[in-house]
Amino acid sequence: MRRTLPPPYGFAIYEENNLKKLMIGLVVVVVLIASIPLFLLATGTIDSSSLRMVMNVMTGMGGPATSAASVQLNYRVPEGFTLQLYASDLPKARFLRFTPDGDLLVSRPHSGDIVLLRRDADGDGHPDAVETLIDGLRRPLGMDFFEDWLYIAESNRIGRVPFDSNSGTLNGEYQPLIEGLTDNGNHWSKTIRIGRDNLLYLAQGSTCNICTEEDHRRATMMRFQLDGSEPETLATGLRNSVGFDWAPWSGELYATDNGRDLLGDDFPPCELNRIEQNHFYGWPYFNGDNIPDPDMGADPLSAQRKPTAPAHDFRAHNAPLGMTFLAPEGLPAQYQRSALVALHGSWNRSDPDGYKVVSLHWSDNGIEERDFLTGFNLDGNIRGRPVDVAQGPDGAIYISDDYAGAIYRVSYGQDSAASSPVLAIPTVDRLDAQAPSWLAEADLAAMANRGGELYQHHECRSCHEQGENPKLLGGLSERLGYKAVIEVLKAPQSPMPIYPLSEIEQRELAVFLLRPPHEDVNTIK
What we know:
The chain is α+β, with helices and mostly antiparallel strands. The chain has helices at 9-42, 51-59, 68-74, 416-419, 444-457, 461-464, 476-479, 482-490, 503-513, and strands at 81-87, 96-98, 104-108, 113-117, 130-134, 143-146, 149-153, 158-164, 169-170, 175-178, 190-194, 200-204, 220-224, 232-236, 244-246, 253-257, 270-275, 279-280, 286-287, 291-292, 312-314, 320-325, 338-343, 356-363, 366-373, 377-378, 381-382, 386-391, 397-401, 406-412. It has 3 domains: 9-58; 59-419, TolB, C-terminal domain (Neuraminidase, 6 Propeller), CATH 2.120.10.30; 437-523, Cytochrome Bc1 Complex, Chain D, domain 2, CATH 1.10.760.
């Protein structure tokens, strides 16, 4: 006869047993996570310097933070180009997309959010503010715009949300369009772009290193109508095509692809493929220049399809991710027909390789690869891992780094953003939609005086009024409202330090900074 313990004793034992099972499960997960890199290290598959890379791949764990001084000292770009650290303290920054009005969106899959970097209207070489645009997403990566919609690729669905480009804010509810996408296995991320044909293109990676997929949508390029209807498989056999873009001179679609692992340091190559309708690009039965895979045997569909060879080979395990074709205006002649590709770098190679941005140059002789941004790998000491590349409306090139949590900016020729206190570009309107509630009963004169005292106490004048390149605050009230100024004071961008200001002090300093322009700072004693 079964005995049932009366509550609460029986319930307590039940909960205790569940807790034990949970703890055992957590221990197993931790052991598995720890055992994978140790196994790879013991078998010589990776170098000891790659251990942190493995954890970056498995968990999104970042590396050491970078600094403007480190960037200038260690990183290199071609002659005539200027490199600067545009933004830091952006852990797990992955893909980039500029809004129509010039703000920069950064997706962070491991944080479940998309961050908006306000356009550098004051010309100090850094975004005017960093704000969370949308969060609570399931591992978002790809983004694109069409009319007044922001399209977002989560790992399990594609959605869109109304977006006001002028204010840089969302203007409605998030609308799922394509649901039920699988995100199990290794390559769960989804990349989207909207083509010239006004169709929504979607790339999905494989679940594994090498296998036969159960979900026929994985390891493919698909396209849809903009409302998510009429799905069509455009190309297959793409193991992990994270980045893709269209050549502006021909309209041809190119995509990066990561080759499989565990066949040695130098095989197979990673790939750049020219995507054509109904073409098969080899995986999992062929690698590189259509060399049969040793683990998979013959392609069971060989009578129906033949593999298409890559348009260009990258070195094995370099992990090409984001790519963009460059608008050539203002660039040297050799960049007239070119693209930039971010090589995230190897995690399973005995000698680390990749970790740079390369330029690809199209000519009658084919595609030539050259180094563009280097210095992330110094004798196995990895400082960063480039992820994506985007060209801004200013013509400069922006590069994300999920390992250092940074965005870099590369410009050609005389760079006004790096040398001039004020850029001659339209300002960004971030005025308050409505006056903050505390303003109604505020004594603005008294608050401005106290704000002026804070301005002097924290020696703000040393950066904003003195020196060779002061970060001038003239015209601030024409661009920013109280809310925006207070946001900057709460979470300033480097090199501005974080000051221990109370909420009242933040408001007082904001009132001082936004006072009528005829009230000079020197009148505040």
